[in-house]
Amino acid sequence: MRQEPDRECCGLLAGHEGIITHVFPAENVASDPARNYEVAPREIIRLMREFRAAGLEFLGIYHSHPNGENQPSARDIGLAYYSEEAYFILSPRPEAPKPVRAFSIRDSRATELEIEIV
Hints:
With 118 residues, the protein is α+β, with helices and mostly antiparallel strands.
């Protein structure tokens, strides 16, 4: 995944039995990609078809916060449409104590998940 300065990157995550094995980068089509992310619905459908064809499970969504803390913003929480999947927020900043964080977002509440990166 390549991070463009001052632009959020985003994509979908897939794998098996809760283990992410595949990263599918997506184009950020948000009107203000420096502050928001949005994956085009057509691209989500295309990626979901790829998952099914490869026998993969949809496990999460990722995006970056290039200019801030990697915790869910109010906008992130409000747009969390997939309540069963994890939301990963990346920080490209070298001083970030946790460059990758994951959250469960349900009922307008975000709870940080424990993740293991191997």
